[in-house]
Amino acid sequence: MTTQNTQIYHERQKLQFCLIHTLNNLFQKKGEFTRAGLNEISEKLVLQETDKKKWTPLSVLFKPHHNAITGNYDINVLMAALEGKGKTVIWHDRRNGASTIDLDGPEDDLMGIVLNISVKKYGGIWSSRHWLSVRKIGGVWYNLDSDLVSPEAFKSTDEVRGFLDYMIGHGGEILLVMNDKQ
Question: How far is it, in rounded angstroms, from Cα 91 to Cα 88?
């Protein structure tokens, strides 16, 4: 169980920079990932692509891997950012549900879980995708979603599994962030 002195780092949502907030919340460190850093990763990914898209005036704003103004980074940026920090990302097979994820294993194996979920805002007239992270800190699992006012502790691993299964059932994607073994 966590002690009273455990401080949980939590960034709040701004524009569509949920991937930045998700990664910083996952790593529990302010500024571990920045807009400039993720933009640089996005640009490198474009240079590595073999299928170059035709440039249009909108290309200045709508980049292949993110929106230049609001953020809204894609999975390729997430994968490259985490691999750059020595992490391995495993896309969880949604057909298996959350029961196959080892939530009770040592914290040095599974760093945390990143989810990409569907969200609707403004009375359902606008829909998009949202990144969030779930991490075990001091023996307790926390929902570190940047849309929350503060982190929310789960009561048990069964509650975490129920949350993950609910998200899977509503179109969510689950990515396991593993610490690389040296």
Answer: 10
pTM of this prediction? 0.79
Strand order in the sheet with 126-137: 87-91, 173-179, 110-121, 126-137, 140-143, 152-153
Q: What is the pLDDT of residues 83-93, one digit of tens each?
A: 999 999 999 98
Query: Could you report the per-residue pLDDT of 29-75, keeping only the tens digit for each?
Result: 998 888 777 888 877 865 555 555 654 544 444 455 445 545 577 78
Catalytic residue, candidates 18, 21, 65, 66: 18
Q: Where is 163: in which H helix or E strand?
A: helix 157-169
Residue from 10, 21, 65, 130 carrying the catalytic annotation: 130
Count the Cβ atoms, other than its own, within 10 Å of residue 134: 26
18 catalytically annotated: yes
β-strand partners of 128: 119
Q: Is 116 helix (H, G, I), strand (E, B) or coil?
A: strand
Q: Is 130 noted as a catalytic residue in this protein?
A: yes
d(CA 6, CA 27): 15
